[in-house]
Design goal:
With 623 residues, the chain is mainly alpha-helical. It has 32 helices and no strands. 43% of the residues are buried.
Length: 623
């Protein structure tokens, strides 16, 4: 039975930091103070110690009991910069509070809209910001957030219109600089850095604000405009904007990493050396770890060392989640499946609303699957298949949940597997034909030959798009099923001939490799033997050995295992026929020919030749 479908890890890149860093326009909401106090300060201290649950509880209870306290602004802001608002129970709380006629209600509507944007609910977020603007509540920050939401949705004309409306109100220069920064990151995300850099062409050298200097430098970096980048850097140095200089150095390292430039290692390491206490230092450690995973071959131990270094730093909630996620990939690439299970199982309850949850469920299911823990694998794959979102990932989860169920020993799970594969087939996705093939193999294993043939026929009739590999495998499996059915019906010649025809089609397929051709020939030879056409079968087996000998005098380690397998099956089948014909010399010569291949059964062939020589007295001088 042929199973060309393998467990493939969804393709991904490890350098996946977004150009859009989280930012909240603090000056709008904190007014004259940006100093946390009271319970907010207690929560902030807890977050700095990595005690997110404690900090979350402090803010949750205090904000629950003080709906009109102006300091709630500070509480919401802290939750936002720590990345907590879109996790845990906060989205539900915010939705409940948003209808209240108090300070908490007003801010809940505002921050609820931000959460909706982060969760991909763009239309709902836009509606909430417009509601705030129309009701003249938090108008300035809502307008800015509206621009950011339009840009996140790639609705640039709407964003530009909103920027024009803000500009017409004569806002502070800081607000205009912030908006230019949003637009710069939009064009960088759209891979148009020259357009981003052109935004600063009309600004005189002495009129650059601090934020404009940084974003202009960022645009110059991405546009590979070294001359302007050097000038912007010098200006940042002259103004002693160390944090922004560090940010620019970090961005340069990440840009090189995205371009697969080996210089990224040195740039990020230099950033860590020059700015050890920068807020992005943990991100740089994680990025270096992921860069090690992208090497050929991967370097999981080097990645673990970087991750351990990151763990020793003060992490934001977002960085902590990223680090946990990255460490799972490290163990998966390092083939430490128990460690994958341990870290993935810890990730899921710790980050229940993470956007990475589907991938983690997939990795956990895969680890259980490859360790043979099929019931646990089924549980994870079923959880994943129940999620909304990436339909391709859900299809993979359904497919492998069925595969895991099929590998257990219970009738109930086998029936469950057939049902799940039917769902995959009916969805008509990329794995539809693979699901049909697996149904056929399972039916074949249950000795339900007619049902198996029906599944194989659906593939061959073009029910769904099918790869060349799967078409060839199905032709071989269909022929094998017909062969078994012929044996079960007292050697029905018609069925044997149908099986032979199926194997001939597999062999003649333009994409058939030598391994497939050899398999089709060997299986066809077995049909000929069953029809008492042993001479024809022997000729077929000999043709495989001759072909292999002529094309590869010494088969190498690069020769596919399947090709070796079917070569030896052909050779040993031919030896058995020669022994039945008492052609001892021919059998010895063929066994010695197989021994010269240097493959996995070469020693067995050599021993077979020696046994025949001793038993039948076949020696060199007799030949």
């Amino acid at each position: 039975m042929n199973q060309p479908c393998c467990f493939e890890t969804p393709k991904r890149s490890y350098n996946v930091y977004s150009m859009n860093q989280p930012c909240c326009f603090v000056t709008f909401l904190l007014a004259a103070t940006a100093v946390f106090a009271g319970p907010v300060e207690e929560a902030r201290a807890s977050f700095e110690r990595g005690q997110f649950t404690i900090g979350d509880k402090i803010l949750s209870e205090w904000m629950r009991d003080n709906p009109d306290d102006e300091r709630i602004r500070e509480g919401f802001h802290l939750l936002e910069i720590e990345g907590l608002l879109a996790s845990r129970r906060w989205p539900t709380r915010i939705e409940e509070w948003a209808v209240e006629p108090n300070v908490r209600g007003e801010l809940s509507l505002y921050y609820g809209a931000i959460v909706k944007r982060k969760l991909g609910e763009i239309d709902e977020a836009i509606a909430d910001f417009l509601t705030l603007i129309e009701s003249e509540k938090l108008v300035e920050p809502s307008r800015v957030q509206l621009v950011e939401t339009y840009l996140a949705a790639n609705r640039f004309p709407d964003a530009k219109k909103a920027i024009t409306e803000i500009t017409a109100t004569n806002p502070d220069a800081d607000i205009l600089a912030y908006l230019r920064g949003l637009e710069v990151r939009f064009w960088l995300r759209k891979a148009d850095p020259k357009r981003a850099l052109a935004m600063f062409d009309g600004i005189a050298s002495g009129d650059f604000g601090n934020e404009d200097l940084f974003h202009a430098g960022l645009a110059a970096l991405h546009a590979d405009d070294e001359t302007r980048l050097v000038w912007f850097r010098k200006e940042l140095e002259a103004r002693k904007l160390e944090s922004r200089l560090g940010e620019l150095a970090f961005e340069e390292g990440m840009l090189l990493a995205d371009r697969s430039d080996s210089a990224a290692f040195e740039k990020l390491a230099t950033f860590l050396r020059d700015y050890p206490d920068h807020s992005r230092s943990a991100d740089a450690e994680i990025a270096l770890a992921e860069k090690h995973l992208n090497q050929v071959p991967p370097q999981p131990q080097a990645a673990r060392d970087r991750q351990a270094s990151a763990q020793r730093r003060a992490l934001t909630l977002k960085q902590s989640e990223r680090l946990d996620y990255s460490s799972i990939w490290t163990e998966l690439i390092g083939a430490d499946l128990p460690a994958v299970v341990e870290k993935a199982a810890r990730f899921l309850p710790r980050w229940p609303r993470s956007e990475r949850r589907p991938e983690v469920l997939m990795m956990l299911g895969r680890a259980h699957f490859e360790q043979g823990h099929y019931p646990k694998a089924i549980e994870q794959f079923e959880q994943l298949s129940a999620l909304q979102g990436d339909s391709e990932l859900i299809e993979i989860a359904l497919f492998f949940a069925a595969k895991a169920a099929s590998l257990t020993l219970t009738f109930e799970n086998h029936e469950k597997a057939l049902t799940m594969w039917e769902t995959v087939a009916e969805r008509g996705g990329q794995l539809a034909s693979n699901a049909r093939h697996e149904q056929g193999l399972l039916k074949l294993g249950q000795n339900k030959l007619d049902d198996a043939l029906a599944m194989f026929e659906k593939i061959l009739s073009g029910e769904h798009e099918t790869s060349d590999e799967l078409q060839i495998a199905t032709l071989c499996d269909s022929g094998h099923t017909l062969f078994l059915k012929a044996l079960a019906t007292d050697g029905d010649e018609t069925l044997f001939m149908s099986a032979i025809e199926s194997f001939q089609k597999a062999e003649a397929h333009p994409a058939a490799t030598k391994a497939w051709k050899y398999q089709a020939k060997v299986r066809r030879g077995k049909c000929l033997e069953a029809l008492d056409k042993t001479d024809d079968a022997l000729a077929l087996y000999f043709s495989i050995v001759r072909d292999s000998k002529a094309s590869e005098l010494n088969l190498t380690a690069t020769t596919p295992i399947a090709q070796f397998d079917w070569l030896y099956r052909a050779g040993f089948s031919a030896i058995e026929i020669l022994e039945q014909q008492e052609n001892w010399k021919g059998a010895v010569l063929l066994a010695e020919l197989l021994a010269e291949t240097g493959g996995p059964r070469a020693i067995e062939a050599s021993e077979r030749a020696n046994q025949l020589r001793l038993k039948e007295f076949v020696w060199e001088g007799d030949e």
